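Hi D.,

Good news: the full-assembly prediction came through. Inputs first.
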Amino acid sequence: MEYQFKTSRELLDLGSRHGASVAEITIRAEVESSGVSREEILRRMDEYYVHMKQSVQRGLGITERSRSGLSGGDSKKVLEHSEGTNVSALGSVFERCIAYALAVLETNAAFGRIVATPTAGSAGICPACLLTWQEQRGADDRATALGLFTAAGLGRIIGYGACFSGAQGGCQAEVGSASSMAAAAICELDGGTPAQTVNAAALALQNTLGLICDPIGGYVEAPCMMRNGLFGLHAFGAAAVSLSGVSSIVPYDEVVGALREVGRHMPRMYKETSEGGLATTPTGLKFRPGKLPPVSPKL
Amino acid sequence: MGLSVFEIIGPVMTGPSSSHTAGACRIGWAARQVLGEAPRRVEIGLHGSFAATGEGHGTKEALAAGLLGFAPDDERLPQALEVAAAAGVALAFRDVDLGPEVHPNSAELVMEGATRWEKVTASSTGGGAVLLTSIDGHDVHLTGRLDTLLLWHNDTPGFLARITALLACVEINVASIRTSRTERGEGALTAIEIDSHLPLPLLALLDHVPSVQRHAVLPILPGY
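Then the structure:
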């Protein structure tokens, strides 16, 4: 086995030895370990990207609140605001990226089809970032979907070194992982070197350390949805900083080690049990299953 | 075996939770394969977080969908309980405590088909990944990332040699093999994870291997 890697050090070694990008090394590793052809793997990822875009489109069309009343119609509002006159000083793209990530989580809450990237609760970040990137750069689907291999390559290192489950590692393991994967994808799509790509992921991941998983009512909606919306922007920020040549003080592998350590020591009440954080605030408690308000709250 | 990109990006799934929905669906799907026929009656014990927060995540619907043979990306998943009822599949859910050592997202399924019954215990370990931990009271450790040949048999000398010889004849590589038995000479279950698909004639041949009572194939889980 020539292309297998478990750390970013191994990934970067492979990249420099073969003069290949993170996406390319990740594709070769997949071909090697699965025995499936390169073309089939690329085709499958293209298909996943199409599913991602469909989950964005579906979510943007949702106008009703979800069964729990915690989400629904929010992505549409943000998208409409991005097209209005009172748009953010950072521009409409900034707001559109938020809307796309919210949309995926709204589709998810409506029992619609999404792609867990790496989990359902963090499924909005990579699609939002890639779709925003694609629209801004005018790239085709295949070129954009290559970013998903970059994302998977960095995710793989988290998979080996830590975990993706909120129940085991808190939200940092879900949204944190997704944001670092998206940062790497954007960085590499924008021409970043493998070192810059890994560095973008390190910058993003370290800012999410300690993030707890405290779903209100136990639903994958709040604060999950807004964390997806805002941590997508965070990925763009990390990619830009990395491309400017600024390095993370702590390298990626060590940040992943810190993710594991923080996850291990995080109290159980903050790991998807809905026994702490926002879930047990006076407002959060109102949404516990069996205690749902009779009428969905109006915003 | 390396972590696949499609375990990190994926599965394509019906929301809202990779562990409580997609993983639960895969558990039901795998259990149906282990039973080897359509289930008629299933008693499902929900353990830990499956019991506590399963309601809002469609865990029951997802388990039912899997038992009906729906994959996690099947958009009929939210209606699976109605589909099961219409198809005459009786499903009964209850909360169980399988003990503190058992993963918080776990289920125990007792299934009855037309000709047999089977009990499967499994956990949803995160991101849609699952682990089958017990079949028919035998300990197993199956992730469903590879095709798995399941053999119910009497614990007799030379059994594994016969089976592995058959697999060797058709050049099937064995990734893992585990036999679990209750007592010496009593009933045993052997689970063999393999790197390629079993040719159908080989499955037919297994019926003629002495001491094999039954066999089933747990195919690679949908989305892998």
